[in-house]
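Hey, resending since the last one bounced:
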Amino acid sequence: MGMWDPVAREHVLAAVREYDQLGQSRFLAKYKFGPARAYQLIIDGRSYDSKATLGVAYGYATGSALSSRDFNGGTSHNGAAWALRRLGFEVAQTADTGAIGSPRSTVVGKATRQITAGFALDQVSDIVLVGCVKTKLPTAAPADELYTSPLFKKRRRYAEVTGRPWFILSALHGLVSPDQVLEPYDMYLAGQPVTYRRQWALRVVRDLIAAVGPLEGRTVEVHAGASYVEPLEPLLSAAGVGLRVPLRGLNQGQHLAWYSSAPAVAGVLPVDAPGLDLDLDAEVDRAIVALTDVGPRLASDFPWGRTDLYQPGLYAWWVDRAGARDLGVPVSGDRTLVYTGQAGATRWPSGTRSGATLFSRISRQHLGGRISSSTLRQTFAALLRDRLDLQLAAPGALTTDAERRLSGWMTERLAATVWPTAHADHLRHIEHGVIIRLDAPLNLAGAAATDLRSRLTRGRHALHLPPE
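The C-alpha cells again:
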C-alpha cells in the first residue's frame, strides 16, 4: 500500500478550504510547515503551498496530519508534487532545482529573471530581509515603491531575483511585506532608545514567524545597517536561525558596488513595462459600471458564493447610514461609496506579479487582517479610534481586542462591489482612472484636499506614533 493511498481529491480540497479560511501564514504555522520552495498546487488560478496542503490532506484522510519531515515535496516517487499530480491536480514548478553552478532562473509571475552561472540558488538564504531608508515618496505607496534611494532599489532588486520570500525592515512598522501600503514617515532606528530597538526586534521576529512559519533550521539573510542587525541577531540565533549578513562592516559606497557586481543582480534580464495596448478609457468605464450599477453585497456574506474572485481586480467599499455617521462621511442613500482599490496589479518597472487576489485582499487583509497589512483597516481605525476605543499595542499595531472590534464594525456596516479582470499588467492605470472619476471620500492618493481627508491623514499619523 502506498503512503498516499488514503488521500483522495476531496481530502486535498478540504485542506485547501482550511488554507483559505486561515490564510497562508496561519495555515503554515498551525501545521509547522515552511512555504513551498519549488512546487505550487494550482486550483482555480490560485497557488497553494503544495507540501503543506498535502500533509494536511493526509490528516483529513487518516485523522493525523503529516509533518514536513515525513515526506519530500518533489516529483520523485511519493513526493508531494508527484502525489498531487497523481490525483489530477495541477502542480507548477516555481524554481529550477538543477546542479550548483549551472545557470538558474526564478519565475516571478510571467517575468523570468536569468541568474548567471556561478551563482547557485542553493547558496541563497531561505528568507531575505531588506532595511528601509530615509528617502521616500511624499505620498502613501506599496512599501517596495515607497523607498526611493539608489541603495534601496539595489537591495530590492537583489531580493526579488533570489526568488525567496523577502520583507522590508521598517524602523517604524517593523516587518513589512513588499506590497503593504505605507504612509511616508520619518524615523531613524539608530536614533531610538535601546529599549525601543529591543521591542522592535521582538516584534519583527514575532511577525516573521507569523508570516513564514517556524524559523528553526532556516537561514535569514539581512541587507541592512548595524542598527537593524544587532538587536535581531540574538533573537534569531535563539530561534535556531542561521544568520547571514553579507555586507557587514562595509560602507554605503561599498554596498552599492557589491550590488552592482553581484552575479544574482548583474545577470537579471530587464523586464520592460507593458505597452498600453488596451483601451484604458473603455476599461475604466467597464469597471465603474461593475462597481456602481450593481447593488453592494454585505461584507458579512463574503464571498457571496462567487467563484471568480481568485484573480486580480478592483473593489469598492460601501457603508450603511449608521456607519457613515460613525465615520463622519456625508450620507448618500442607504449605502454610501467610501473607498475604491485594487488587488493583484503587476508592479512596474520590475514586472513582478503580485500573488494577491480579490478574495485574499478582502477576506484576509480587509475583513480578517491587521491594520499593519491593510490601508483600508488603517483608514477605518483612524476615523473610529475613539468611537470603538481602539488601543495601540505598539506603533502601528492595535491590540487583539481592538482589531476584533474593528473587524466586527466592518463586517456589520460595510458592503462591497467587485470587478474581476485578467488585465493585471494594466490594473494600476485602470485603478487610477476609477479613483479619479469616482472620488470616494476616503481615498487619499491623487484626491483633492477636504476636511475629512485632512482628519483622516492626522488620524493615520497618530496610529503610527512610536511609544514615548
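Residues 95-123, 263-276 have pLDDT under 50 and may be disordered.

Sorry for the duplicate.
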